[in-house]
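Narrative of activities, Objective 1.

The group set out to show that a structural description can be obtained from nothing but a protein's sequence at a throughput compatible with the screening campaign. Below is one input-output pair from the validation batch, recorded exactly as produced.
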Amino acid sequence: MKLNKLLAASAVSTAIFLSACANTPEATDNNVTTENLINGGEWIVEDIGGNGIIDSSRVSIVFMEDNRVGGSSSCNRYSGEYQLNGSTLTVGDNMASTRMACPPALMNQEESFLKLLMNVNQARFGDHGELLLSTPDGETIRAFPSSPKP
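Output recorded for this entry:
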């Protein structure tokens, strides 16, 4: 009886994992399209320019219809426009952000993230399905899909 419950739980867990992975890019697919950016749902940033992120902070990127982008930048929410042409990704200079005050470390992280994001010129997928956004100087934002859209 216990074995049947264990097998059933394992099957459910596997199904959930596989369905979450179904809409993320393949490890060998480096081609970024508007569709797979949007279908990635919320991209959770794991690294900003090689400095990681502050524990328990949240930095995210959500690509939306009509070339809109937004998310959490550590302390505040941001939004703006983006353009994707092949692997060339640009984020508009017209970014808007809420103006909440947070501890200095979070504010510094937010400033670094937004500065890098607005200087991004290339998008690609890494070997593990992560989104890699790079600047002309070689600085990179690395993000993983959190909530792929069905």
